[in-house]
Write a structure and sequence with these properties.
Layout (H helix, E strand, L loop, with lengths): L14 H27 L19 E2 L15 H13 L4 E4 L11 H14 L6 E5 L5 H13 L4 E4 L8 H14 L4 E4 L6 H10 L3 E6 L8 H7 L5 E4 L6 H7 L3 E2 L6 H12 L3 H15 L6 H7 L28 H12 L6
Parallel strand pairs: 1-8, 2-3, 3-4, 4-5, 5-6, 6-7, 7-8
Helix pairs in contact: 2-3, 3-4, 5-6, 9-10
């Protein structure tokens, strides 16, 4: 690295100032070298080069979990639901999954699940975003119907939470082995509760279509390295929990991240920058998301209204008792506050 500076004769300045100047130059050179190294070597786990070229849909990147809007008379709003997929494709978001926990899947009827999946897959036809359909259900018969329907209607992959209130790992292994036999689609396991690394590895070894895990069991960041090591780095680890530790996740080798949909395009921009070798810029882009969150706790569904994805009169059906995640603590931000925050701070960085 070449650093130029004006020529200064030692006898032109006092000796102390001359030595200070030389010291400052050496420090600047050291910091420049350290900065360049950080841009290329940041992270504790090396990652393969990220392929940003067009081609087959990839199981990597930002895969937001879709929200579930309803009309004022409590009918599933298929138009607004599908608009999330259009939003993701317009914003360069890599994938989209529905219905999962953030979608309040347990509040949906079977017919709503089927109709919603059809609307999402129709909206995404021809787009770049990889579309993942959730297949967990009240029993194995329902799971089978959801999985077969997803395959028939053009899903790119399926995902399943474990059966509700089941903790026996032999039962869970059997469940995912059954799900893996239902279709040839790639299967995401969404871990939950106390599902162990041993269990995830055993599913990986015995279910050929399971090469993806959305890991939300235990302390996920403490499990990534072991999951990668024990599967010879063949298991693609995705994060949940809003992807609020995105930079550390990428440093550890997490290849997919599942935030809410409202700022998924900004998340995707941070991801693309970081994996494109511009890690400091990716870091800064992610910082804008965290700074926006510091304005107050925004209702993620209302955020989609503010961004014009959902109609202004959509409603949201509450999850059954005990099924919803506890609300995030903090000062709530109004709809106007969300709108103003987007306009004042994030507008230049919104891709959709």
């Amino acid at each position: 690295m070449e650093i130029s500076c004006p020529a200064i004769k030692p006898d032109a300045v006092p000796r102390r100032e001359f030595l200070q100047f030389l010291g400052a130059g050496a420090l600047g050179l050291a910091l420049a070298v350290r900065s360049a190294k950080a841009d290329t070597d940041s992270g504790s786990a090396p990652l393969p080069p990220f392929d940003l070229s067009p081609g087959p849909k990839k199981l990597r990147g930002l895969f937001p979990i879709g929200a579930t809007p309803f009309t004022p008379d409590d009918k599933l709003d298929l138009e607004s639901l599908a608009a999330q997929v259009t939003f993701c494709n317009r914003g360069g978001v890599h994938g989209f999954a529905w219905p999962q926990g953030a979608s309040n899947w347990s509040a949906l009827t079977e017919s709503e699940r089927m109709e919603g999946a059809e609307a999402i897959l129709a909206a995404g036809k021809g787009g770049a975003a990889t579309l993942v359909i959730g297949v967990q259900g009240k029993d194995m018969g329902a799971v089978t119907r959801y999985a077969k329907h997803a395959a028939k209607t053009g899903a790119d992959a399926i995902i399943s939470l474990p059966p509700v209130n089941v903790t026996d790992e032999k039962v869970l292994l059997d469940y995912y082995q059954q799900v893996g036999r239902l279709t040839e689609l790639p299967l995401f396991v969404q871990s939950h509760g106390s599902m162990s690394v041993d269990l995830i590895v055993e599913i990986f070894k015995t279910v050929p279509t399971m090469r993806q895990i959305k890991d939300e069991a235990g302390v996920p960041l403490e499990r990534v390295t072991e999951l990668r090591r024990r599967t010879d780095d063949q298991l693609r680890v995705f994060s949940g929990q809003g992807a609020l530790t995105l930079i550390r996740e990428m440093e550890l080798g997490v290849v997919g991240h599942c935030p809410y949909t409202g700022l998924a395009d900004v998340f995707a921009a941070a991801y693309d920058l970081w994996h494109g070798g511009r890690r400091r810029e990716g870091f800064d882009m992610f910082g804008r998301i965290l700074a926006f969150g510091s304005l107050g706790v925004a209702d993620q569904n209302r955020l989609l209204i503010s961004r014009g994805v959902f109609k202004t009169d959509v409603t949201f059906r509450p999850a059954p008792s005990g099924a919803a995640a506890p609300p995030r603590a903090g000062l709530r931000i109004s709809d106007q506050g969300v709108h103003d925050g987007l306009d004042h701070y994030l507008k230049p960085y919104l891709r959709a």
